[in-house]
């Protein structure tokens, strides 16, 4: 007996649930299952994240309600991604383990349509589909929705984010109006609400956890660094958690690949997943991640949608998403099924207001933590090594034959020296790397302190560049910053002084990005004129006098910084707009 027994599920389903090791229904299951088993079914809107057990919440009653004697398609489940679609079909197949004559088909893009057609032709009472491929099969008259009695929209907000609104509307209007409709969504933006209003009848609304909030088992941490130190901060955080198993979210495909490449170069078990990779490449990376050969998956939001990986210890926001609601999805990938998880944001001071917006959205406060120092990391790592030594299982019979030689070889070492040496085998590389590690922290609240620190570091932070465009090319600072953003594909490179001269100009930019800037401007043109950017040599271009001209025109260094900040902000906003349009 288990407490699923009170939900009116039939014997075969209870047996399958038991096999899966589910002991008690989750809150969403307690609410959705009885309602779907009633004769007078109501439509349901469930605000529930992945990890709440929502698949079983709709899957179990769907299996129970299916008429197995009929081959017609009766239930349709729509999901945003191939991964989620397959996951749902798999889960439902395991729920239907003790039922006969129930067929569940998965229909999704990026795979052979012929195989899916032949499966459907054999008759599938339940179809789990992504909207695009489903429409394709409807248009080919392979799938008919006229006998559908139940429609589930899973991760509805994601489907709308991915631009499936029109597809959804077309699909929903093809199904019988007497259908029972269930909508699951982690968030409830206006577009989701509109779908519910137009295609659902008097729905019951249930909320698992608070609206738009993250799971209770997820804690949220924020590390403030300068933009140029983002990668170093990531490494510190990863080194501080030796057992980390997580996803690092980046904003663009390029940034995703760059961060993964850097991590791999630096010896981490990491790889990237993003839209520039083929489905086969993505599957390979995902396979390795699932079996933990890869410990850090660097991903774009789109590529990570629908990935269902359990036991993630951390989510790291290498950069915050453009749309802050996406943060809830990211962080909801950890802390599942009652486990504890941590969602980390690496932010710079300019992003403080975004952090506050997220706090309001998830109704939780971030724990602002200092970037671990070299010493913190070393002590954490040494404890990890010792812990592993303490817990390792010794296979006495296997190791015994090797021991006499080893004992002999090490007999000159006393116990303490032996421990020092064993620990050092693992530990030395961290000691070496972090020996003179700088402090990467920036003060979060004290403006005066910040200015002092900025003043100290500013000199070393910037590289001065020459560019062969000037007033005669109508070059403006805003346009120049725009080019730097676009050509490097990075938005938050710190820009210092900009000196626009008649025939050429100088600009200062975060030294950490020098190579990227030079590389980014290669083979680029403005008004048919080849652009040339080089690191400025003072003598060659009379650099100082150039800066003097700018100072005369625009006042003190403080004045120039202000100008820089304004132009950067407006450009970033433009970038965001451009991005939104592309979606
Ligand atoms: P879902 O939200 O449907 O993606 O489910 C998240 C995870 O929770 C899956 O691995 C399920 O197998 C698991 N799960 C679902 N229901 C239960 C339950 N009642 N007890 C324990 N685990 C469950």
Residue windows where pLDDT falls under 50 for at least 5 positions: 446-459, 538-583
**Main sheet properties:** 7 strands, parallel
Bound molecules: adenosine monophosphate
Fraction of residues in helices? Answer: 40-55%
For the record, what CATH class of the largest domain applies?
Alpha Beta
Structure description:
- This protein has 583 residues and is of the alpha/beta class.
- It has four domains: 4-207, P-loop containing nucleotide triphosphate hydrolases (Rossmann fold), CATH 3.40.50; 218-373, 3-Layer(aba) Sandwich (Rossmann fold); 382-434, no CATH class; 461-545, 2-Layer Sandwich (Alpha-Beta Plaits).
- It contains 25 helices and 20 strands.
- The strands form four sheets. It has a seven-stranded parallel β-sheet with strand order 3-4-2-5-6-1-7, with helices on both faces. Strands 10-11-9-12-13-8-14 form a seven-stranded parallel β-sheet, with helices on both faces. Strands 16-17-15-20 form a four-stranded antiparallel β-sheet, sandwiched between helices.
- Strand 16 (495-500) and strand 17 (505-510) form a beta hairpin.
- The chain starts with 10 loop residues before the first helix and ends with a helix.
- Mean pLDDT is 83; it is low at 446-459 and 538-583.
- It binds adenosine monophosphate.
- Adenosine monophosphate binds at residues 22, 25-26, 29, 50-56, 310, 336-337.
């Amino acid at each position: 007996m288990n407490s699923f027994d009170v939900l009116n599920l039939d014997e075969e389903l209870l047996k399958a649930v038991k096999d899966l090791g589910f002991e008690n229904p989750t809150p969403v299951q307690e609410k959705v299952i009885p309602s779907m088993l009633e004769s007078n079914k109501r439509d349901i809107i469930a605000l529930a994240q992945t990890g709440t057990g929502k698949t079983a919440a709709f899957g179990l009653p769907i299996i129970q309600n299916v008429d197995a004697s009929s081959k017609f398609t009766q239930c349709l489940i729509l999901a945003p991604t191939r991964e989620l679609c397959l996951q749902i079909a798999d889960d439902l197949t395991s729920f239907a383990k003790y039922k006969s004559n129930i067929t569940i088909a998965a229909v999704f893009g990026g795979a052979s349509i012929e195989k899916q057609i032949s499966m459907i032709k054999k008759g599938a009472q339940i179809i789990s589909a992504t909207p695009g491929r489903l429409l394709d099969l409807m248009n080919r008259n392979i799938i008919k929705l006229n006998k559908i009695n139940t429609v589930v929209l899973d991760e509805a907000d994601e489907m709308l984010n991915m631009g499936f609104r029109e597809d959804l509307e077309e699909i929903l209007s093809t199904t019988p109006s007497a259908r029972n409709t269930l909508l699951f969504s982690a968030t409830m933006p206006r577009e989701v609400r509109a779908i519910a209003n137009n295609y659902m009848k008097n729905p019951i609304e249930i909320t698992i956890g608070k609206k738009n909030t993250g799971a209770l088992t997820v804690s949220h941490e924020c590390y403030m660094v300068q933009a140029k130190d983002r990668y170093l901060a990531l490494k510190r955080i990863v080194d501080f958690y030796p057992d980390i198993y997580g996803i690092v979210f980046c904003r663009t495909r390029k940034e995703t690949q760059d961060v993964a490449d850097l991590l791999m170069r630096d010896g981490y078990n990491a790889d990237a997943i993003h839209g520039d990779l083929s489905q086969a490449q993505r599957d390979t990376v995902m396979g390795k991640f699932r079996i933990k050969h890869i410990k850090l998956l660097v991903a774009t939001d789109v590529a990570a949608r629908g990935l269902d990986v359990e036991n993630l210890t951390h989510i790291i926001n290498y950069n915050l998403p453009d749309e802050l609601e996406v943060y809830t999805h990211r962080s909801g990938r950890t802390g599942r099924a009652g486990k504890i998880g941590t969602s980390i944001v690496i932010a710079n001071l300019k992003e403080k207001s975004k952090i506050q917006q997220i706090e309001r959205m998830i109704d939780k406060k971030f724990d602002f933590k200092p970037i671990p120092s070299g010493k913190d990391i070393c002590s954490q790592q040494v404890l990890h090594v010792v812990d592993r030594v303490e817990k390792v299982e010794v296979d006495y019979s296997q190791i015994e034959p090797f021991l006499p030689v080893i004992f002999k070889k090490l007999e000159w070492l006393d116990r303490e020296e032996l421990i020092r040496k064993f620990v050092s085998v693992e530990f030395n590389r961290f000691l070496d790397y972090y020996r003179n590690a700088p402090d990467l922290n920036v003060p979060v609240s004290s403006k005066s302190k910040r200015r002092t620190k900025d003043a100290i570091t500013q000199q070393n932070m910037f590289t001065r560049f020459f560019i062969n465009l000037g007033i005669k090319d109508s070059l403006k600072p805003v346009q120049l910053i725009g080019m730097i953003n676009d050509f490097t594909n990075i938005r938050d490179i710190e820009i210092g002084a900009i000196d626009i001269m008649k025939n050429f100009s100088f600009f200062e930019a975060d030294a950490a990005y020098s190579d990227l800037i030079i590389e980014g401007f290669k083979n680029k043109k403005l008004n048919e004129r080849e652009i040339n950017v080089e690191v400025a040599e003072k003598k060659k271009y009379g650099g100082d006098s150039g800066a003097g001209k700018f100072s005369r025109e625009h006042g003190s260094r403080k004045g120039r910084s202000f100008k820089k900040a304004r132009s950067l902000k407006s450009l970033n906003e433009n970038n965001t707009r451009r991005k939104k349009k592309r979606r």
